């Protein structure tokens, strides 16, 4: 999740675990610093932009690495603060919890983390919460600020902080249930429209868990469906269908770039040809057509489509101005058409095959 949330979560966990020993202010500062530590892997240079994309939140977010690091970091804290010298085991556990909770809430986002590396090297990416969620973050921010403003420990601060952590953890668990509900509802809608989707994925929309983006994946195309928990039971749902153009990457699938993207995205990819470049996008992050992670991995020429060194493509706008109005309307369950996807809005019976760009030779 976002850096502020990670800092205040670490601060809150540390306050509960260590605040009585060294005071809430020191505990919150230590916890906040440790809570941001796993994300420092972003400073590690990678050979190409795809590696930077797929290997961020890697080993530094593994709970096994955290278990090994906790005694090392904890011992440093024990030697630094006199109040911790008689609570060595408690300090080690606190450090582990601070690091592990960072990784766990990151795993709840669609980007995910390699939570169980190296035993299970694939990313764990639930997608039931957006990277910024005020309902989760603001209560923790409140108790973290409270802790930072106090030098002396109080039972009330410890109790309230523990309650806030319990409630926000419950909210995080609730989002998984909401995701399952939305997924089943989307599957029913796709089936009613006669869409034979291979996979269905529900992802929390920006800043909330009321509105959800659902991706229905087929081999040739994918479908975006937006479901609000406030939709009327009899409300008609718009399905936006888009081509995936698998023919563009048919000769690139054996390449390292495509294989890494396909592995990381779990197959939620689309290809498009922009001028002479073949651009592959991760469908899970961002809104059509301005996906956050787009990479040029091929080039069309006289000899067909050939692999090229990967390049990050930043040519599209991520969000259109109209999207803010649309997000507000759909959040409240009011019918609204997303202008950026209007050309692709179809009823299954009315869908027409699209003109295909040049294919691999």
Can you walk me through this structure?
The structure is a single chain. This protein has 361 residues and is of the alpha+beta class. Helices cover 42% and strands 16% of the residues. It contains nine helices and ten strands. The protein has helices at 3-22, 24-36, 49-55, 63-80, 88-107, 134-148, 155-192, 256-265, 321-331; strands at 199-204, 211-217, 221-228, 239-243, 269-274, 277-282, 286-287, 290-291, 294-301, 304-312. The strands form three sheets. A four-stranded antiparallel β-sheet has the order 1-2-3-4. Strands 5-6-9-10 form a four-stranded antiparallel β-sheet. Strands 7-8 form a two-stranded antiparallel ribbon.
The spatial strand order of the largest sheet comes to 1-2-3-4
Overall structural domain count:
2
Q: Which descriptor suits the 3D outline? A: globular
How far apart lie the N and C ends? 42 Å
The level of helicity is: 40-55%
Largest sheet: 4 strands, antiparallel
Give me the strand/helix succession.
HHHHHHHEEEEHEEEEEEH
What does the average pLDDT come to?
93
The number of helices is 9
Q: What is the SS-derived class?
A: alpha+beta
Sequence stretches where pLDDT stays below 50 over 5 or more residues: 347-355
Compute the gyration radius: what is it?
23 Å
How much strand?
15-25%
Number of strands: 10
